[in-house]
Amino acid sequence: MLRTPSGGARNGTAVDGRPMSIGTVLLQLQEEFPEVTISKIRFLEAEGLVEPQRTPSGYRKFVAADVERLAQVLRMQRDHYLPLKVIREHLDALARGEQVVLPSPDGEPQQADGEPAGLPGRATAARIGRAELLVAAEVTESDLDDWESYGLVVPAADGGYDADMVTVARLVAELGRFGLEPRHLRAVRAAADREAGLIEQMVAPLRRHRNPQTRAHAEATAKELAELSVRLHSALVQTALQVRLR
Fold it and tell me: Are 169 and 147 in contact (CB under 8 A)?
């Protein structure tokens, strides 16, 4: 269930029960899905995954069911690497009152609400193969070849892709819908490498420590620094855009 910043449960509507704007929906979804964007919500609408109401002037207005449906779509993408076509079929089945069984990372099949299903199903491994990545990102073999040639998507030594790389692939795919090609994203890749190198230098003394707790602290510190770095990058981009678009 989505939750308010104060920790109370949200039912998908504004406090006074009125329909929400797309910006309000974004804020709710970002609590569970930090990577979601307004363009992502619009894309899911264009693909028929959600159908918000429209005001006479054309503004989108979302209700509780719309927010929950979006959350279901995003969970199925994130946790089960399902393509939109399959997700749409699952949602239609749920609307008909049917039980939907999904593969889960731990190998135990789940119902669409996350509860164990007790039925056989295909498990989603911690690392997926090339064919599964193509389905998850909804791109072609040629697209993936281009991304790998520019170092945007990098397979592991065994040829598989972990969850973070799946996220990268999806984001690159979404940017591609706006006309951004892999060559345009080389600078982003280079900047990420530099930031990772800086963080690595900062936690290196802790990682070399013999105390396991100190090494664990190094991992936690690196994660926190990475999150702060992402937030700073986002803020700097927004600030730069404000200056350029005035």
Answer: yes
Q: Can you tell me which residue has the tokens 């939907």?
A: 100
| Distance of alpha carbon 153 from alpha carbon 189, whole angstroms | 10
**Residue 153: per-residue pLDDT:** 94
C-alpha to C-alpha distance for 42 and 45, rounded to whole angstroms: 5
Tell me, what amino acid is at 80? H
Q: Can you list the pairs that 196-199 forms with residues at least 24 positions away whose Cβ atoms lie under 8 Å?
A: 196/226, 199/225, 199/226, 199/229
Distance (Å, rounded) from C-alpha 187 to C-alpha 168? Answer: 15
The alpha carbon torsion through 97, 103, 107, 108 (nearest 10 deg) reads 0
Closest CA to 32 of 83, 63, 74, 82: 74
19, 63 Cβ separation under 8 angstroms: yes
Regions of the chain where pLDDT drops below 70: 1-17, 103-126
- Residues 110 and 90 sit within 8 Å (Cβ to Cβ): no
Task: Report pTM.
Answer: 0.54
And the tokens for 111? 């119902």
139's CB contacts (< 8 A; 6+ apart) are 169, 173, 176
Half-sphere exposure of 71 (CA within 13 A, CB side): 23
